[in-house]
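Lab meeting, item 3. Inverse folding demo.
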């Protein structure tokens, strides 16, 4: 009795039976009440027949006008839903069920359990594409309850994508038109039905039913449900991307502020040279001068493009260089280059950082090493003359009074002029 009461149709049957039984008692009581109220005539058979006919007519009239409408009234008060919904033995009709709006979270914890109960399916699995669009999060249902959820990459996903790209509808194991590849997947996983969640050309998830649904509306309802589920998953992924983009934008703004602070390097005065840096409005480079044992070094890090990501990357390289200079005082171009290559993987990352290291020597000469193809060290009086080659230690003897220029990707970074008078001071 309790098992029958726990199902919607069972409750309906029990309540309907109780109402019918109560109505029968009332009708029977009315019949006997009429016999009590109407006096018993003489023993004449004709009068007795007339009495019975009168009681019968009154009983029919009262039943039709009062008792039957009363019964319908009480049934409507007890059963809030329409009879056709209840009589098909469903707690939720599929049209009413699919009218609900749901998110991914409510899909997992509310919609799917209700759907499985409506389908009368005890075991199922659902896979939803994760925010990174690389793996699927699996959730297992048993007796209408979620019992397990793991972020795993389903091994047959690529095969499912390939199969559903052409099939694009619910797969039933008993369908004669089912492709062999899809049928093999279902047999291997002991799946009766697969409901794909397809948005445009992307498989956003799928529902495995381990047994066929026992509901005559299942096919139509699941087709509509799959479309709504795909849209919900797509909206969830897009929403997560918007949130990530907002956080990423804040990080980029912070990186640009840090980059603008770190690239304001002080230009030292060094005998024999005049140094004039140019403002890099694009933010695609940083340059730093430092002295070691009375020797002057210049290091430039540059990228193809500026922006927050490049700023963060260049600032990180500059900070790494600061720590190197602070720890090791006996530096040379070779030691700086070897340390940056060995200890720092940022040089090999996108967006592609190039590096120039220069050491200034007394007498107006320089040793320059360039790693990258976009750097140019040129004599402005002979712009077509090649003074340095990438990947080599280049020794450059500067002619006094001539302007030399360092560029990267056609962006002027630094002007250098050797003085004939070693006591000349650097340009302020």
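The presenter then showed the designed sequence:
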């Amino acid at each position: 009795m309790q098992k029958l009461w726990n199902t919607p149709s069972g409750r309906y049957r029990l309540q309907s039976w109780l109402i019918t039984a109560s109505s029968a008692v009332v009708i029977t009581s009315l019949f006997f009440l009429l016999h009590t109220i109407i006096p018993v005539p003489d023993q004449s058979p004709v009068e007795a027949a007339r009495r019975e006919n009168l009681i019968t007519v009154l009983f029919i009239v009262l039943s039709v006008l009062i008792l039957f409408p009363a019964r319908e009234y009480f049934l409507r008060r007890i059963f809030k839903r329409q009879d056709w919904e209840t009589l098909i033995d469903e707690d939720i009709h599929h049209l009413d069920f699919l009218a609900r709006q749901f998110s991914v979270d409510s899909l997992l914890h509310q919609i799917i359990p209700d759907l499985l109960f409506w389908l009368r399916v005890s075991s199922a699995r659902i896979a939803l594409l994760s925010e990174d669009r690389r793996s699927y999060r699996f959730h297992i249902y048993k007796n209408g309850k979620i019992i397990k959820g793991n972020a795993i990459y389903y091994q047959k996903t690529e095969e499912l994508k390939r199969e559903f790209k052409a099939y694009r509808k619910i797969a039933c194991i008993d369908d004669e038109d089912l492709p062999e590849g899809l049928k093999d997947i279902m047999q291997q996983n002991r799946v009766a039905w697969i409901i794909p969640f397809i948005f445009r050309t992307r498989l956003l998830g799928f529902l495995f039913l381990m047994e066929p649904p026992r509901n005559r509306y299942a096919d139509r309802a699941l087709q509509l449900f799959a479309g709504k589920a795909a849209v919900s998953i797509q909206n969830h992924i897009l929403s997560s991307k918007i949130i990530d983009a907002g956080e990423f934008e804040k990080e980029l703004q912070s990186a640009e502020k840090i980059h603008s602070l770190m690239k304001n390097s002080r230009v030292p005065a060094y005998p024999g040279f005049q140094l004039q840096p140019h403002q890099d409005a694009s933010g695609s480079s940083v340059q730093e001068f430092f002295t070691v044992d009375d020797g002057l070094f210049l290091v430039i890090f540059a990228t193809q493009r500026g922006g927050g990501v490049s700023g963060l990357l260049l600032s990180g390289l500059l900070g790494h260089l600061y720590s190197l200079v602070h720890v090791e005082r006996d530096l040379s171009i070779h030691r700086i280059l070897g340390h940056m290559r060995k200890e720092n993987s940022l040089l090999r990352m996108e967006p592609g950082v190039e590096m120039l290291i220069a050491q200034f020597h007394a007498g107006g000469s320089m040793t320059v090493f360039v790693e990258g193809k976009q750097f140019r060290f040129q004599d402005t009086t002979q712009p077509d003359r090649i003074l340095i080659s990438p990947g080599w230690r280049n020794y450059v003897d500067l002619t006094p009074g001539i302007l030399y220029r360092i560029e990267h990707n056609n962006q002027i970074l630094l002007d250098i002029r050797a003085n004939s008078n070693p006591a000349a001071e650097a340009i302020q």
